[in-house]
Amino acid sequence: MKKILRLGIVLSFCTISAQTDQRIYDIIEAVSAERIEKDITTLANFGTRHTLSDTVSQTRGIGAARRWIKSEFEKTSTACNECLEVFYQKDLVKKGTNQRITKDVEIVNVLAIQRGTKYPNRFIIMSGDIDSRVSDPTNFMDDSPGANDNASGMAGAIEAARVLSKYKFENSIIYMGLSGEEQGLFGGAGVAAYAKKQGWEIIGVLNNDMIGNITGVDGITSSTDFRIFSEPVPPTETEKERNARRFYGGEVDGISRQLARYVHKTTKTYMPEMNPMLIYRLDRFGRGGHHRPFNDAGFAGIRIMEAHENYTQQHQDIRVEDGVAYGDVLEHVDFDYAAKLTAVNAITMASLAWAPPAPKTVEIGGIVEPSAKFKWSKVNGAIGYKIYWRDTTSPTWDHSRFVGDINEFTLKGIVIDNYFFGVSAVGKDGFESQVVFPNGIFR
């Protein structure tokens, strides 16, 4: 009886605390639309941030922009008693690598690492792009303010650092500005390779690319809708894993898809006025973003962006044509909306950074039985585990049960054939890891 009572207390505690932690609401409140507006304006006023643009000027070009970004991260670090490790990560890309690289160029990314107290080598990452472009992707001379694409995402990463640097987390957080996106996703590829070399364990990458526009060419204006793009399964999976999916499922349950669901759940819990849209696609049709190089390396990564795009304001020379004003300029950015999506990122990172690691292995059994059985590897820092399940046609985890500090459990009366399942680890404050889809079978 005492054991049952204790489990009930823990379950009640976890259910309540994970949804009412005041720190999360404080983080949302602390995100400043005014600071984001100031930062977007500063970035746009560098004239152009094209990857091949001026690196010497103090007022124009990508060199001036990245130095300013680094200085903002350093200011934040000074304010939090040097809690951020701020540095450049660089790679040389040679002329002719592709048609958009018309001269040798050093791709320079800006990273700010906030080390976790318990898991300093586990990282949740928020990225924005530094670079911008006009209609001709090789034109690095003309004005290309890139106010929304992607000064908005870059400003969001800077602001998230200001807000979250006031807290201590068990896992590490990286705030990142990536270069070379418009020329071939070179910045992300460079950091992904660097992460592999350093042996980083990446929880996930939140790539923010265009988080400032609320009025689309579809005629819809919305300050609450946003999209979360995620690939279904990692491209690095083995032939054995691919074959297993035919019999056990998992076509839409890769690590990036679980990260997307985590953002969706966190948003609906703490910011219910927002409408996160799970898009079952790596990126927009035939297009790419800076989460993709991390996916290519086997890391979880998603794209967070506005729901309603205006193509007259992307990759365009600044002009008026047939009464239509083209160009990615400041007047088209909604700074309050950019602040909301920055808050979405901040509370997701905080929740994951306060959570224990996810189980490495989750095994499922119960074939031709009236019950679903589970075994999983225990992790340090977890007070218990939660089993999730959903209809096979549902995009979200709709049912769950907290089962305490054990490593196997049977859901009696639930037929394994009719649902998909997963397991997460729960920490002392109720924060959870991502859900892990079963990666093993037992009889």
TrEMBL record:
Cited Pfam families: Peptidase_M28 (PF04389)
Keywords: Hydrolase, Metalloprotease, Protease, Secreted
Subcellular location: Secreted
The Peptidase M28 domain, residue ranges: 109-313
Domain of life: Bacteria
SUPFAM superfamilies xrefs: Fibronectin type III, Zn-dependent exopeptidases
PANTHER family named in the record: METALLOPEPTIDASE M28 FAMILY MEMBER, PEPTIDASE M28 DOMAIN-CONTAINING PROTEIN
Protein name: M28 family peptidase
